[in-house]
Amino acid sequence: MWGRCWLTLVFWAVLGGCAEETHHTPPPACTPNCQGRTCGADGCGGTCGSCLLGETCTLAGACTSVCLADCTGRQCGEDGCGGSCGTCQAPNPFCAPTNRCVDCLPNCDGRQCGDDGCGGSCGACTTPFVCTATVGTCRCVGSCVGRECGDNGCGASCGGCDVGEICNLTGTCEICTPNCTGRECGDDGCGGTCGAGCGNGEICDAAGQCVTCTPSCGDNECGDDGCGGSCGTCLGNVGATLSCTASGICRCPLDACVPDCTGQACGDDGCGGSCGECKAGQVCAYDRTTNPLWQCAAYAGADPSATFFITSRATWLSGGNFGGLAGADAICQQRATEVGLGGKTWRAYLSVAGTPARGRIGNGPWRNVRGQTIVSAGCGANCLTELHQNGVRAELALTELGTQVDWRNEHDLYTGSDGDGQPNGLDCAGWTSAEETTLAQVGHVDGVRPPNPTSWNSAHSTGCDAVAIACTAGRGLLYCFSP
Hints:
Layout: H1 2-17, E1 55-57, E2 63-65, E3 94-95, E4 101-102, E5 129-132, E6 137-140, E7 165-167, E8 173-175, E9 202-204, E10 210-212, E11 236-237, E12 240-241, E13 243-244, E14 250-251, E15 282-286, E16 294-298, E17 308-310, H2 324-338, E18 347-348, H3 383-390, H4 407-410, E19 412-414, H5 428-431, E20 439-444, E21 460-463, H6 466-471, E22 474-477, E23 479-481
Parallel strand pairs: 19-22
Antiparallel strand pairs: 1-2, 3-4, 5-6, 7-8, 9-10, 11-12, 13-14, 15-16, 17-23, 18-23, 19-20, 20-21
């Protein structure tokens, strides 16, 4: 045994026992690599950059918007990130708007009131309106019982009174004695007037005195200018006439309209009135999670990085005649200037023959006036494709003032484009015509993604006159981009 050990020691001594000590060569220096990366590790312990708040870095080194799926309290429907919260099965096969599985799916499409088909209600009518159960609309039912004069409650008359009489609040005619004591103008209490009336630039105040008046219309298109004059006259054409709402907006008449402000702190009541005004420093805004309902939200002004907005108003009484592309671009530029974004070039998202809308808006990504990216921040060279495939999320489609438009009555926006942003020939004769016989393609600002026909940029066609756009839920508004 000892012999074998001695031979082994001799063997190793011969092979390496007398060799010099081996020195390890240090590794080569690390070269950071950020080619094609805007964030994440550079391979050498450093970073290629950081993402903005609300974004995350992908494995490929690109910043993308963070989307947090949320199925809290949901059995079915979308999870908010393009996924699903589940599928309903028998005996509860329907997914209700509340994202719960039910055995009967309520249907109130086109109905203001009455049964929803599942034992629930589509809404209630307020007096003097009653629900016509078969069609589910509120109809005004007037009455002249016990009245010889005045209104029947629905805008019709129950009769008139003789000269020298007046209709009192109970609908009865009574003798009236005029009274103009201390008054130089205004009502004499019996339907007549006191004095000869006020002169130009004057108005009769509540005390019956003529005072100087300065007309004020603001953004009103019609109605009283506050001094007895008019802010404008609403247009009409064969088969349709626009009417002036209480808020001074020309709109297609709404038969038996019932205002609805349920859960809303501001915004349109659906009948041309308002659900309330926001305080200074706030705007009326929408969030998908509120079902949708408009609420007052803080707004500090347009973000300087903004490259996208929707016009809050337009010269729509001229229909689709913007004076060509140049005139439409000038509207976008003016709106941008009014909110401090005039230092950039702005263009309207409109197509004409030979000039596609998609070729006028740059390559993106684009940000709204709150600084939110309307496509994924990491879309790179594919931003145009992503925009036209996925559209603009409704919550991100803000005006230059930071608000959404009134979707119930104003969701049509002129584009003249197909779903890919190419001309489709419906462009109001190159945006120079306001004739009802010419057509324009419009998109839905609250629309669903293509290929659904209610897409953001190519939903349907409409006439180029003001009445047509107003009566198909539009105001002639424009998408504006800074390339």
